[in-house]
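Ligand-bound model needed. zinc ion.
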Amino acid sequence: MTEKRYWFNCTVIAACPNCGKQSVEKLMMASLSENPDLINEKTKLMQFACQLCKKPFPDGVALEIGVFPSGEHDSDSSVN
Ligand SMILES: [Zn+2]
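Prediction:
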């Protein structure tokens, strides 16, 4: 089995209601699909915390999610 994995660079930006600052979190996500919309949907279901005060964002905080294909992919299913 050689399933390709596509890597995406994700950026999650939110105005933190706890400390009043803008939190920017960057993470990498792997997907079997090269469709960035699927990553976006997945990211919306994740729980994020402020990068500055480390408190989780309460419900209702607007997250600005950017998904950018990294251009890398591999066929190693042992990743993650
Ligand atoms: Zn904060």
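The beta strands are 5-15, 22-31, 63-74.
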